[in-house]
């Protein structure tokens, strides 16, 4: 595969899909149902705005979304109350498939959404976006509606400010550029075609989602990309430029934890696919430093990257969606 | 919905239904509020916000949607009788610069962010009114002319509205100006006012020996002291508001420039003019004393005026408010309503909800009272449309 051709063909700017009316007509023609999932944990400052915006613009004005659901990991602030006030369906992650237990992590919410939500397409949008706009949903859903060969659409954000020359640096955040891109370059060079592989916004067809295992922690996005690439190939993946995303910035130490989780998930995948040889058992402890005056000490964080099995393997799921064994 | 009323009582009886019905456009209204608020629109730079307003109007299916040379945004909700028109105005500009973070937060019953009350909510109501009328099945006899006016605040001097009123050819029965805050507000008179700046410039080459004796700040201080000595009468009610002072560069550098921005208000035009003359004299005197260039520029003027408290438009507003358990807060205005009144058009300003922290970055409005504010607005549109606000011949 020629990566440059893929980038040209499957990298799209959201402005191509400005005609939402036409998009809705096409969606209705195909008799598709679309669900929006907002995974939350203490997002009271931004959740209300996201729901109001999506409901007003993409349900009431243009009926593109059939369902807006918040899957909450147990917020202690007013996230659930606000979400429900503005008309979202609010689910506690722990209440969905309780027989499978409760695990903490964003990936857990995304996985449970596959069971709880009913859409043929599920679009995931993080709940901490300050500059929310309908394009965050319609921009991701549109390639799936217009192009049947595309199954997984990832967001990226690139807004040139003032550059006098034609060439400017572009790409992802710190963890992407320091960890994920080098790893992809070494082991899955085609996946380097994704500008921001870790972005939390993506839309996926149900028939793909239900077949994907879900790491419950930081590794979910990286693992998904590898799995979709392995099973369906690069042509099933597209990426959409959504211009700009304003969100809270993370501390370097937190990014360290994220990198640790991603690396664990990546290594497991690479080992299972035979891309690298057998690995020893991987440690679950990340050690970081802190200092009291002149005394340095280590703190250890346990970061376990557990994985949920593909939803289609669950009898409850097959029964709910009428899938024969 | 039946929109033919025989008297005001029938309109008043409809208020609970209107308030309940207004909740149906909650998400649309708040989405419009967010999108309009997050576009910076300092005075003279309202273009992008107006563009969005027009886009929303077009999406609602309004046919007559346009902008004019002053940058105003206008849309018309067609009535059954094309010869009759009611003007609904909200100013589009805000006091926040483009550099301000315009991010809005939506909480259970509050929306927080710069300018949400003054006057993004007013603009959002303009953008949402067609949806509201559609949802409730309301059709007026009169055309409702929705105007997002530009250049309203500060040195804008209501220039957008003035341009619109100078150049449009529609005869209006009455005008309603809407402001986000405060619900219960009822303005139907305008104070005379002028806004001005005094800028003081001294030569760059100040002598070292004269440090401490002379600077643009000291000269301006003299001007301020002399302004404060101007005798202000209790009747007619008159006031001088010193709004903002700027000057100098740092701790140890002699200030060569300084400026004062202020406003004079009076119920009597002659009194405002007299004070203006006094300030002219003060400026000339201080300029010669300090050998400074002192400029006195009037940037905005309003003439005093108003409609009578017994005017049917005012009387009906009060009735509607009382029916909604709102205590009318009556005070004169120097905003859009003053321009309409000065042109002989019966007009009022109404507030839409409760607000706190006005003009701070955490300006906050409450969501629930908005429905009452919308019911009030719809009732007044019915009242004007039904001819109940006309003065007896």
Describe the structure in your own words.
The complex is a heterodimer of chains A (325) and B (393). Chain A has helices spanning 3-10, 20-29, 47-61, 79-85, 106-116, 135-146, 174-187, 206-209, 220-232, 252-272, 315-320, and strands at 11-13, 34-40, 67-72, 89-92, 121-124, 152-156, 202-205, 214-215, 237-241, 285-292, 295-302, 307-308. Chain A has 325 residues and is α/β, with parallel strands linked by helices. Chain A has a single domain, classed as Spore Coat Polysaccharide Biosynthesis Protein SpsA, Chain A (Alpha-Beta Complex). In chain A, helix 3 (47-61) links the parallel strand 2 (34-40) and strand 3. The longest helix of chain A is centred in the last third of the chain and has 21 residues, at 252-272. Chain B is of the alpha+beta class. Chain B folds into two domains: 8-190 and 304-385, Aminopeptidase (3-Layer(aba) Sandwich); 192-302, Alpha-Beta Plaits (2-Layer Sandwich), CATH 3.30.70.360. Chain B contains eleven helices and 18 strands. Chain B starts with 7 loop residues before the first helix and ends in an 8-residue tail after the last helix. Chains A and B meet through helix 3 and helix 4 of A and helix 3 and strand 4 of B.
């Amino acid at each position: 595969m020629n990566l440059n051709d893929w980038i040209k063909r499957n990298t799209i700017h959201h402005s191509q899909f400005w005609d939402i009316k036409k998009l809705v007509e096409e969606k209705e023609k195909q008799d598709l149902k679309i669900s929006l999932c907002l995974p939350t944990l203490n997002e009271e400052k931004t959740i209300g705005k996201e729901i109001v915006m999506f409901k007003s613009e993409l349900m009431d004005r243009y009926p593109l979304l059939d369902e807006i659901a918040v899957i909450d990991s147990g917020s202690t602030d007013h996230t659930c109350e606000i979400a429900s006030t503005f008309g979202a369906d609010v689910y506690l992650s722990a209440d969905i498939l309780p027989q499978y237990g409760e695990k903490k992590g964003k990936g857990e919410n995304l996985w449970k959404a596959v069971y709880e939500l009913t859409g043929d397409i599920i679009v995931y949008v993080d709940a901490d976006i300050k500059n929310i706009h309908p394009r965050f949903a319609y921009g991701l859903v549109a390639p799936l509606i217009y192009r049947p060969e595309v199954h997984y659409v990832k967001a990226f954000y690139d807004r040139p400010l003032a550059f006098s020359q034609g060439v400017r640096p572009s790409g992802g955040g710190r963890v992407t550029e320091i960890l994920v891109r080098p790893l992809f370059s070494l082991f899955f060079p085609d996946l380097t075609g994704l500008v921001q592989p870790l972005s939390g916004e993506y839309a996926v067809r149900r028939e793909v989602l239900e077949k994907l295992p879900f790491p419950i922690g930081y590794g979910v996005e990286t693992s998904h990309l590898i799995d979709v690439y392995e099973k369906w190939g690069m042509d099933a993946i597209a990426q959409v430029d959504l211009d700009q995303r304003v969100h809270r910035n993370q501390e370097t130490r937190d990014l360290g934890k994220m990198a640790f989780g991603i690396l664990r998930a990546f290594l497991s995948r690479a080992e299972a696919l035979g891309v690298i040889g057998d690995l020893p058992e991987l440690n679950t402890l990340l050690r970081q430093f802190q200092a009291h005056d002149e005394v340095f000490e280590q703190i250890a964080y346990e970061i376990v990257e557990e994985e949920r099995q593909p939803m289609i393997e669950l009898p409850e799921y097959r029964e709910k969606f009428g899938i024969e064994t | 919905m039946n929109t033919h009323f025989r008297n005001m009582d029938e309109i008043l009886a409809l208020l609970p239904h209107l308030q309940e019905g207004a909740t149906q456009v909650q998400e649309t209204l708040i989405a419009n509020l967010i999108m309009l608020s997050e576009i910076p629109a300092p005075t003279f730079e309202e273009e992008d916000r107006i563009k969005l307003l027009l886009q929303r109007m077009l999406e609602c299916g309004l046919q007559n949607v346009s902008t004019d040379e002053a940058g105003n945004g206008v849309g018309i909700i067609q009535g059954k009788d094309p010869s009759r028109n009611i003007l609904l105005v909200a100013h589009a500009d805000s006091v926040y610069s483009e550099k301000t973070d315009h991010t809005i937060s939506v909480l259970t019953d509050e929306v927080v962010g710069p300018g949400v009350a003054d006057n993004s909510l007013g603009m959002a109501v303009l953008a949402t009114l067609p949806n509201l009328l559609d949802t409730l099945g309301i059709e007026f006899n009169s055309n409702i002319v929705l105007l997002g006016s530009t250049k309203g605040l500060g040195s804008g001097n209501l220039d957008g509205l003035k341009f619109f009123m100078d150049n449009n050819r529609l005869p209006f029965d009455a005008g309603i100006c809407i402001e986000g805050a405060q619900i219960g507000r009822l303005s139907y008179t305008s104070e005379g006012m002028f806004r001005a700046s005094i800028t003081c410039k001294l030569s760059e080459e100040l002598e070292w020996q004269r440090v401490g004796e002379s600077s643009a700040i000291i000269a301006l201080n003299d001007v301020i002291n002399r302004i404060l000595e101007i005798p202000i009468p209790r009747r007619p009610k008159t006031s001088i508001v010193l709004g903002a002072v700027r000057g100098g560069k740092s701790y140890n550098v002699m200030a060569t420039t300084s400026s004062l921005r202020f406003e004079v208000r009076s119920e009597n035009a002659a009194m405002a003019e007299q004070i203006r003359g006094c300030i002219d004299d003060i400026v000339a005197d201080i300029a010669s004393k300090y050998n400074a260039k002192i400029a006195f520029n009037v940037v905005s003027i309003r003439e005093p005026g108003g409609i009578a408290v017994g005017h049917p438009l005012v009387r009906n507003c009060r009735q509607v408010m009382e029916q909604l358990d709102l205590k009318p807060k009556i005070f004169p205005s120097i905003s859009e309503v003053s321009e309409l009144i000065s042109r002989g058009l019966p007009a009022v300003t109404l507030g839409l909800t409760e607000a706190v922290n006005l003009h701070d970055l955490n300006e906050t409005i409450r969501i629930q009272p908005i429905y009452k504010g919308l019911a009030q607005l719809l009732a007044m549109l019915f009242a004007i449309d039904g001819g109940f606000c006309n003065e007896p011949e």
